[in-house]
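Customer escalation, tier 2.

The customer says the design service returned an amino acid string that "doesn't look like it belongs to this structure." They asked us to rerun it and document both sides in this ticket. The original structure tokens are below, unchanged.
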């Protein structure tokens, strides 16, 4: 498979993952009957979906570096052109609504300690200008706990993954420039192992969040191994070795829940690498459907905008519902989906598509990560 070929199945996967993240931010606020509790639990793994995004990013960046002949400046220019046009207006929205309180007092059906409390943030912390500056340069994932334990999600929660992405871009450039070849997966696996050792040896103040690249390096390694597999530079046996090492690190970092992303990613690779497998045909058709492809096109702005859009919507509905969870939920579930999707479509059509269609010196790489499209 040539570096310029389009991975339509992975585009569809990206769209469905973005919807999954949206649902994981939506359901914890709903007043649902007890029999539907398993549904909430089924959509409580938004972090695992982002880990699959990281694997997708590893594949995408390997292909993108090759497309730009491993030249740092053109590659970084293309990445900035891809990330910032949608990111900046959503970040501005998040900053504008940050002073608003989370409003949980108007939602008595949400139990203290619920996952909802970790999704929305409200009010300015000390040194808010530092948070804005860090988010603008995507450096908020580099801050250890001693300098601000919540800085990695202080303004726009979804942006934590963009910081990890940016760190990966810089590392990938450093690893590929010397040999003019995609960075090797084992370098990322070594980084993930170092993070694991650091977690057990370093004092609490010098611990890092999951927005710090070494904490998620094993998923990027899976993406690099997948790129080699699809480029016919390595077979399934070589990929299996990386998968085994990455899975062991995922287990060590996150326990059994960490294995979800490697399994989903391997299945997604199989859909692309073995197109004739009849057993995979139904899933391939779903991911290549027009709906999945459309969601894939708007997935990056949808991933970014769902949290601030839902916060504004939720605060308004909580005021109107006046403590009635049933009324809140009746409006919250449909609007909490359609409003972010509509805003993402507007961002895609009004910002992303025109900028990507503008003349440029080199074609932008296909991207299947949260910052891709």
């Amino acid at each position: 498979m040539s570096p310029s070929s389009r991975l339509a199945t992975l585009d569809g996967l990206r769209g469905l993952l973005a919807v999954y993240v949206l649902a994981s931010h939506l359901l914890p606020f709903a007043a649902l009957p007890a029999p539907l509790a398993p549904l909430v639990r089924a959509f409580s793994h938004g972090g695992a979906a982002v880990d699959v995004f990281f694997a997708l990013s590893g594949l995408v960046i390997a292909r993108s570096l090759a497309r730009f002949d491993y030249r740092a400046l053109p590659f970084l220019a293309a990445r900035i052109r891809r990330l910032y046009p949608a990111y900046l207006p959503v970040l501005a929205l998040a900053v504008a609504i940050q002073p608003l309180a989370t409003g949980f007092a108007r939602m008595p059906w949400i139990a203290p300690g619920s996952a909802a409390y970790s999704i929305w943030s409200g009010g300015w912390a000390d040194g808010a200008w530092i948070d804005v500056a860090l988010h603008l340069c995507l450096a908020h994932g580099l801050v250890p706990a001693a300098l601000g334990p919540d800085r990695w999600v202080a303004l726009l929660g979804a942006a934590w993954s963009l910081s990890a992405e940016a760190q990966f871009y810089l590392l990938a450039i450093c690893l590929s420039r010397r040999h003019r070849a995609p960075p090797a997966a084992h370098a990322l696996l070594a980084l993930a192992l170092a993070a694991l050792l650091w977690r057990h040896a370093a004092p609490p103040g010098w611990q890092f969040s999951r927005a710090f690249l070494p904490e998620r390096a094993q998923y990027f390694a899976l993406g690099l191994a997948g790129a080699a597999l699809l480029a016919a530079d390595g077979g399934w046996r070589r990929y299996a070795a990386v998968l085994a090492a990455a899975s062991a690190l995922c287990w060590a970092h996150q326990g059994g829940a960490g294995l979800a992303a490697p399994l989903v990613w391997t299945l997604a690779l199989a859909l692309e690498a073995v197109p004739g497998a009849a057993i995979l045909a139904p899933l391939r058709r779903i991911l290549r459907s027009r709906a999945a492809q459309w969601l894939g096109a708007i997935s990056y702005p949808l991933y970014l905008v769902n949290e601030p859009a839902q916060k504004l919507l939720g605060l308004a509905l909580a005021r109107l519902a006046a403590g009635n969870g049933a009324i809140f939920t009746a409006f919250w579930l449909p609007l909490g989906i359609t409003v972010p999707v509509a805003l993402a479509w507007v961002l895609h059509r009004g910002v992303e598509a025109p900028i990507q269609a503008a003349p440029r010196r080199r074609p932008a790489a296909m991207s299947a990560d949260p910052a891709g499209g």
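Tier 2 assessment: The sequence is consistent with the input. The chain has one domain: 8-357. The radius of gyration is 20 Å. Sent an explanation to the customer and offered a walkthrough call.
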